Please model this.
Amino acid sequence: MSDLSPTRSPESNMDDSRSEADAVSMPLIAPLAAEQQSVSIETREVVFDLKDINVYYGTALALEGVTMQIYKNVITAMIGPSGCGKSTFVRSLNRMNDSIPGFRLTGNALYHGNDIYASSVDPVEVRRRIGMVFQKPNPFPKSIYDNVAWAPRILGMRSGLDERVEQALRGAALWDEVKDRLKRSALGLSGGQQQRLCIARSIAIEPDVLLLDEPASALDPIATASIEELMHQLKRDYTLVIVTHNMQQAARVAERTAFFSLEVSEGKRTGVLVEYDDTTKIFTRPSDKRTEDYVTGRFG
Ligand SMILES: Nc1ncnc2c1ncn2[C@@H]1O[C@H](COP(=O)(O)OP(=O)(O)O)[C@@H](O)[C@H]1O
Ligand SMILES: [Mg+2]
Model:
């Protein structure tokens, strides 16, 4: 997993819908299930080792001094008020911000020990390893089959394509619902099915990491529950990073939670990582007053 040298790869989708996360007013969130509490993070392999990451858009400092490690086969949630840089941060993990005019990142972003911003690294190869799913399901106006087969075809993974498509659709818990209509348009699927199709499309090329930026916020509660259930299944094979403004969702799905906030100084607003810990600790015994205010709904 250490070689990030150039190969032919699909461009990941550049669509992004900015979310307007509202403050959620609620009491402290119930602790996680015992299974999730038992994660001993020290024993986990580090996938991302991020040191003092600053992100600028032009002269505006959007994120300042983010230092954290993201662990293999763990679901890590990013929470915090709208505009605190959650999307900026996850998009920096697979170089999805590169095309934004004025984007600049400083600090050290290591992925399996490799600097993903090193000049020798091909951003397309980074995005092949580190897939992304967006808030708004964005299937191509093609058949269900062709959506999933799209990236494997571009990468020349043509042998066993039918099996690969089936595998990806099974992996995204969608196969049983679509196996009899693979040649029909993906646009005929429900929103929740479309989002699982987008996940199938991402995993069809067997990435290492999946970044999900508010993947369920455009979905109804039942479709949301199926995405959350799917995430638990996917973490066996993938490392997952999810942005969510729904704190209960973070508590339900993630073992680790990072709380970002906005610092306001001289009229400038900068996103900072306030606290990063086991999800249970963030929601029940946060170390920082700002985290406590946020998770108890005193601040949004
Ligand atoms: N493409 C962009 N160009 C300029 N500024 C941006 C861009 N995307 C985000 N920003 C700014 O960066 C800050 C963080 O935004 P974002 O990462 O979208 O926050 P969040 O996902 O937490 O709501 C905001 O001030 C936002 O206006
Ligand atoms: Mg966002």
Summary: The beta strands are 46-57, 60-71, 75-79, 103-111, 114-115, 130-133, 209-213, 239-243, 256-265, 268-278. The domain at 34-136+205-295 is CATH 3.40.50.300 (Rossmann fold). The first helix runs from residue 34 to 37. Confidence is low (pLDDT under 50) at residues 7-28.
